[in-house]
Amino acid sequence: MSLPPGFLDELRNRSSIAQVVGRKVMWDMRKSNQAKGDMWAPCPFHKEKSASFHVDDKKGYYYCFGCHAKGDALGFIKETENVSFMEAVEILAREAGMTMPARDPQAQKKADRRSQLAEVMEQAAQFYRLQLKTGAGQAARDYLTRREMSQQTQDQFEIGFAPDGWQNLWDHLTGKGVAEELILAAGLAKASQKGGKPYDTFRNRIMFPIRDPRKRCIAFGGRAMDPNDNAKYLNSPETELFDKGRSLYNHGPAREAAGKGEPLIVAEGYMDVIALAAAGIKATVAPLGTAVTETQLQLLWRISPEPVIALDGDTAGLRAAMRLIDLALPMLSAGQSMRFCILPEGLDPDDLVRTKGADAMRELVANSQPLVHLLWQRETEGKNFDSPERKAALDQSLRAALAKIQDGNLRNHYGLEVKRLRAELFNLNPTPRARGEWKGRGKFPEKGVAVASTKNSLLAQSTDVEERLREAVILAILIAHPHLTGEYLSDLETLELHGQDHRMILGALLRHTDELDPERLKHILEAEVGVAPLEKLWSLSHVQIAPAVRASADQTLTRMTLAEELAKLEARRGVQREIEDAVEDLDGVADEALTWRVGQAAEARNASMRTKGLEDGGDGEDSGSMKDYLQSLIDGEIWVKKSR
């Protein structure tokens, strides 16, 4: 349904978000200022004792500094009432005394049609529930008992039974006056190819109603009682109500539980979800008989920014995890990822909670692996990297995988973690080189050890206080002038920073590029990274004296300062990269003496460069050709002690 221009603006102007939110929370009146419409309360979306949920009644928005939920009055109604946007508009319009505009006739007709189908599905669900209690459902009841599914759980998930026979449901629904066309359109029966009566889609199966977030029954899943049936599990066909690639089993209840702070778990099937929910782990969903789709992944992220994928530890489960990695990589962002919980081989979540208890499952979820580690496992497990060619092939496959990540800053962090894992893999058990003499200095050094020490010694000389100060000024400018984060996004996404504090602050800034109010941004940063890192940043004298850091600074000067600081930082990083590339060329010929002599030579070269920069009126950061210079040291065999 389309709304006339200005309707939503008028609705928001007539509504008080404080009144809307006030129905769901208890205001902290010690912290709130009711006269100014500045209200605080414990967050209704996650468990907490402190009042970190803020409502600005004059501006009409809410924000939680704990779980980062944010939105306006309509968004709050959608989240807390579990309704669609248009339903939220209708609720708010009634409260504001506004008349909803007339519906488009075609849209109304389509909505009525879906309502009719949903009603037919509800009647089918009730029929299946009753059938489970009859004599025909005895075998199904025995099966559920063996699976230790209590009556309470069966009632909660509305488990039913489709009896054997071709027209049981068909005859029941038509006998109640339901139009044959609606039964067929709902996917509950199929037309006969032989000219006979339509026949039931589900026969001799335990039935699981599939409901949308609004609790409407949109489909069914059925488990075959006959072990020789062609399909152990069968879902409803796709209909006007049901698109299996856009639906999740247990969506509504899981969303509600995740909103209260539970980690969202993605299991493989109905029985896993039911078993976990019965054990008290309620924030659990399952895709409907297929691999997770792109749309389902987006649905998961709307529920939780980091769902935990719980898969069986068998070959099929691992294959599913690996496929999901490729689907997810292009869609990842700083606040949108996933973790993986691989269960012990031979156990699914249902087996685990029945044999070892719910705490065993919670522990596995708490220790779930980040996506990058499963990616690394996929590329390295069971492979031998005993030759340069095999190592190069690994590097190539990893580069191809990381190139799929669209978020530049995230791609950079993935690269750093992969680089760390690579170094760990190749240097974990360094082995001596072939025996022999090395320019009169004894046996060859161990591969990796000398090179690492050489590299660390050289790079340490380029990582100095000046770079950290430049980083601090850049971050301070972005905090004082939030709109610049969006303007310089491409540069900032690939910016490597020293120290955890600086990286945390930049990450938070990149997650909140839509927040343009400096004061609100500071509150967000304090909630996400803590007060101490920000106080440390602002206490630096280099930051305090920078004119561009002041909120009132001239915007042209501010942009010029930011661009200049980024350019100078990149110039220094260019020198570091050239040094690192040159040191890689020393692989196999380095020892401690070389480390010291090349380090001294590089320092002398840097000092010369700085002096030249000052004499030329520059900033002393001209990189020259450091790689060529180091190569000349290699060509001159600097590691060989010259006789006096």
Can you walk me through this structure?
This protein starts with 6 loop residues before the first helix and ends in a 9-residue tail after the last helix. With 644 residues, it is of the alpha+beta class. The model is unreliable at 428-463, 585-593 and 608-627 (pLDDT under 50). Helix 24 (518-529) packs across helix 25 (531-539). Strand 2 and strand 3 (61-64) form a beta hairpin. Helices cover 52% and strands 8% of the residues. It has four domains: 7-96, Zinc finger, CHC2-typedomain (DNA Primase, Chain A, Alpha-Beta Complex), CATH 3.90.580; 105-242, DNA primase DNAg catalytic core, N-terminal domain, CATH 3.90.980.10; 261-428, Dna Topoisomerase Vi A Subunit, Chain: A, domain 2, CATH 3.40.1360; 459-635, no CATH class. The protein has a five-stranded mixed β-sheet with strand order 12-11-13-14-15, with helices on both faces. The radius of gyration is 32 Å and the shape is globular. This is DNA primase. It catalyses: ssDNA + n NTP = ssDNA/pppN(pN)n-1 hybrid + (n-1) diphosphate. Keywords: DNA replication, DNA-binding, DNA-directed RNA polymerase, Magnesium, Metal-binding, Nucleotidyltransferase, Primosome, Transcription, Transferase, Zinc, Zinc-finger.
